[in-house]
Amino acid sequence: MNFELIRAVVSKSLRDRGVWGTVRRTAEYLVKTRAVDEFDVRNGTDTSGIEPLWKFSISSPNAKFGGRYHASEEWELAGAAKVLDEDLSSFTFVDLGCGKGRSLLIAARLGFRRVVGVEFAAELAATARRNIQIAGITNASVIDADAAEFSLPEVDLAVFLFNPFRSAVVRRVASKLEQPRVGELYVIYSNPVCAEAFDDCQVLQRAGSAPARWLPTIIWKLTRDVGTTPQAPRELEIRAYKSSDVTALPAVLMRMREHDILRGRGEVWNQPTEKKGCGDSSAELCGNE
Ligand SMILES: C[S@@+](CC[C@H](N)C(=O)[O-])C[C@H]1O[C@@H](n2cnc3c(N)ncnc32)[C@H](O)[C@@H]1O
After folding, report:
1. CATH topology of domain 38-49+63-222
2. Residue 235 Cα, ligand 1 centroid: separation in angstroms?
3. The whole model's pTM is what?
4. Where are the domains of the chain?
5. I need a surface site. Which of 162, 171, 193, 263 has the fewest CB within 10 A?
6. Which of 65, 68, 74, 96 best tests ligand 1's pocket when mutated (most atoms within 8 Å of CB)?
C-alpha cells in the first residue's frame, strides 16, 4: 500500500466532496472493484474492475500523476486499430500503463507482431503476466517500468495509452517521440484528456479517430519528413547559401529555429513541459468512468 498516495487522495476527496461524498465514493469503489465483466468470464482472466493506485507499491515519483487501473474494451481497441490501415503483423504494440494487461490480450489477437506492456505498479504487472499465460499468448511481455523512463523500441510501433497519467507524464512521453527514430509510429490515445501534448508534437499529425465510451480515441501518425531527417534544416540552409537563393533563407532559418528547439540545441529538450490545462485534475484523470 502507498500511504502517501492514500493521504493525498483522501485529503483531495475531502476537499472536493466533503465527508459524505468521500464515504459514498469509497462505497462505490468497493462495489465496482469486485465486479467481474464479460471479458474475464469468457477468457478466464482477471482484468476487470477499478483499482486505485494507493493499493499498490509504486516507487516512481510519478505515482502522483498516475490514474487508477480500469481496462479497455475490445471494441474500442479494435476500432482504433482499423484506423491504422496497416498490416499489423509488422507492428509492435506498446501499452504505456498496461495495468492487468487486457489491452495486450486484445492487441495480440488483433494480429500485432509483438505486444509489450509497461506498468509501474508491480502487483498489476504481475497480474498482467498471469493473464497472458492464462490466455496462452506467446508474443507478449510486461515490463516493470515508469512510462516516462521507458525507451521505445525502434521498430514499426503503435503506442497505446488509455488515459494512464496526467499531462506532466504525457508530455514527457510526447517529447520522446520527437527524437529521430527508425520505423513507422502511431500513437493511439484512448480517453485522450491530454491530446494537446501530441498535437503540439511537431513530428506527429492526426490520422483519425475512433468511437469510444467517453471521449473518442485519437490516432496520430509520425510524419516522416520531420521525424527522421534531423539534419535536413541544416542541409537546406547550406544548399540555399550555395545556390545564393536568398529568398529561401528566411523560411529555412525559421525551420532551423523550430528544429533546434525540438532537438534540444537550445537546452529545452529534456525539460518536461509542465503545461497545465489537460488532465491536471484527478477528476479528469479518473475520467475513465
Ligand atoms: C486506465 S489504466 C489502463 C489499463 C490498460 N492500458 C488497458 O487499456 O486496459 C492506467 C494504468 O496506467 C498505469 N500507470 C499510470 N502512470 C504510469 C506510469 N507513469 N508508468 C507506468 N504505468 C503507469 C496505472 O498503474 C494503471 O494500471
Report:
1. Rossmann fold (3.40.50)
2. 41
3. 0.76
4. 38-49+63-222, 231-264
5. 263
6. 96
